[in-house]
């Protein structure tokens, strides 16, 4: 596995307030984003903000925080085969597959696992994002 965190997505109760906090309060540069989600460029990764219930639904878990901490870590890869292989390897090492890999409504292919402490990881082929570090000018 090429180790990196591609995107950190936080499930938030009030998206507009969260956008103001990260954009205005912390000065994170906001990318152009669909209205139901916000993306910020960070050095080497992205931060995403998404409704808590919508993110929990995407991961296939309850939003009540008993089985979902309110965020998911994402690792983007280059093929469906890599999605399957990483999920399989995670399972072999004790992770629970919380959502088997499948084609998504946003045009990708992804699945989720919970690590040994229950933190959600999405492994995804996302045709809308470069799988390497964020590209910078030049």
From TrEMBL:
<dbReference type="InterPro" id="IPR037523">
    <property type="entry name" value="VOC_core"/>
</dbReference>
<protein>
    <submittedName>
        <fullName>Fosfomycin resistance protein FosB</fullName>
    </submittedName>
</protein>
<dbReference type="Pfam" id="PF00903">
    <property type="entry name" value="Glyoxalase"/>
</dbReference>
<feature type="domain" description="VOC">
    <location>
        <begin position="4"/>
        <end position="126"/>
    </location>
</feature>
<dbReference type="InterPro" id="IPR004360">
    <property type="entry name" value="Glyas_Fos-R_dOase_dom"/>
</dbReference>
<dbReference type="InterPro" id="IPR029068">
    <property type="entry name" value="Glyas_Bleomycin-R_OHBP_Dase"/>
</dbReference>
């Amino acid at each position: 596995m090429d180790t990196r965190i591609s995107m950190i997505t936080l499930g938030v109760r009030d998206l507009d307030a969260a956008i103001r906090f990260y954009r205005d309060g912390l000065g994170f540069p906001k990318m152009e984003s669909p209205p139901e989600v916000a993306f910020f460029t960070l050095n080497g990764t992205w931060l995403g903000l998404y409704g808590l219930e919508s993110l929990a639904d995407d991961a296939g878990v309850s939003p009540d925080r008993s089985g979902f901490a309110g965020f998911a870590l994402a690792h983007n890869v280059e093929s469906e085969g890599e999605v399957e292989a990483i999920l399989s390897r995670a399972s072999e090492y004790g992770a629970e597959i919380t959502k088997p890999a499948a084609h998504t409504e946003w045009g990708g292919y992804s699945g989720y696992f919970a690590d040994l402490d229950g933190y959600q990881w999405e492994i995804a082929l996302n045709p809308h994002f470069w799988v390497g570090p964020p590209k910078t000018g030049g």
